[in-house]
Amino acid sequence: MMPWVLQIPLLDLIIATPAHSQSHTASRAAQIKHSTVQNRSVAPIMAPTSSSELLQAQAELWCHAFAYLKSMALQSVIRLGIPTAIHRCGGAASLSDLQVALPVVPASKWQSLSRLMKLLVLSGIFREGEAGAYCLTPVSRLLVEDDQDQMACLSQFAVLATSPFHFGASQRLPEWLKNDDASSETPFKMAYGAGFFGYTSRDLEFGKLFNEAMSADSRFAAEILVSECGEVFAGLTSLVDVGGGDGTTAKAIAKAFPHVRCSVLELPQVADTMPEDSTVEFVAGDMMEFVPPADAVLLKFVLHNWNDEDCVGILKRSKEAVSTREPKGKVIIIDTVAGLASKQTFEAQLLMDTCMMILTKGEERDEEKWHRLFLNAGFSGYKISPILGCRSLIELYP
Ligand SMILES: C[S@@+](CC[C@H](N)C(=O)[O-])C[C@H]1O[C@@H](n2cnc3c(N)ncnc32)[C@H](O)[C@@H]1O
């Protein structure tokens, strides 16, 4: 069951006109100006006034400036297999249990590793149990790689996000913000000389890392999608997963709902390398030119890679692909609707937005931005179900 949904016929909604926004801005500016004149002697807001406030501010600054070291500590324990080792010890492991389980770490490094674990306990990745044992938390449970286990694992996603590829591109952000020429389209392109999806085929190590990360994310999301959102697929006989990667999501849908014939549209560099599969058909093509017809088009984690103009084009082609299948034809989007969330989820969404700024020409959109895209692509209504944590499921009607 969906906890709650927003169902909106597009034509019923009134979008604020520029004139309305401008007059609002103008009157707010007048208020601010007025209060500035009234309060000339007030000290600048937020300036630390005592030594203790200054020192507190310094501690906060250290935390922000060194935040990437949490990512590096996280990547280290994933690569060493520590969450899996703790899981195999029954969910709690002492340092000596880990020493037995992980002979790859030399004796000289255990002291250093215990210092990293202290940071990760403080960050909530692990928890300290009885007699100083390290225990899994819900976060590190997501990093357990165990073939015996039925639970989805997100360690490959975290390895990609903390990889030198992402880190190298993010180092170009300040330079990119000052630059306006075509070669500096994204910080990623400045760092590696190619756009993101071009580079996945050019650098095999990066391509493999990216595909494994997307596949891990899809296993995670598909588990929730098929168990919680069955009604979304009711009555459908065919679905095409556009930009569907290695077909993990399409395969999960085909398995859970055998009445839906699933295919995947992917770039030739991806589709042509996929092994024959009896449940899902791979179609090599370019979504910027063509979307194959089906009852439903799925766009999971795709539109946030593209700017508004490209998104409207993809959505128009998706609308054409499903329109003839009315009344059941629809487009299903899985992506962030920024802001429909707790503070922590919103922070995760803003970090993903910054990641999109660095890697692609896309962004994480709030509902107003989605609304404008849907209107420009000619759709008649949509329904947002915020049921996938940081992301929502959006059903879009032609
Ligand atoms: C961020 S990934 C998402 C993959 C998959 N939907 C998922 O959620 O795991 C975006 C996908 O779009 C594919 N893609 C990029 N440009 C494309 C295009 N022009 N036509 C078809 N697929 C494209 C990429 O190869 C990649 O697999």
From TrEMBL:
The keyword rRNA-binding does not apply. Residues 1-21 form the signal peptide. It comes from Urochloa decumbens. The active site is at 304 (proton acceptor). Residues 183-380 form the O-methyltransferase C-terminal domain. Residues 62-145 form the O-methyltransferase dimerisation domain. Pfam families: Dimerisation (PF08100), Methyltransf_2 (PF00891). GO terms for biological process: methylation. This is Uncharacterized protein. GO terms for molecular function: O-methyltransferase activity; S-adenosylmethionine-dependent methyltransferase activity. Keywords: Methyltransferase, S-adenosyl-L-methionine, Signal, Transferase. It comes from the Eukaryota.
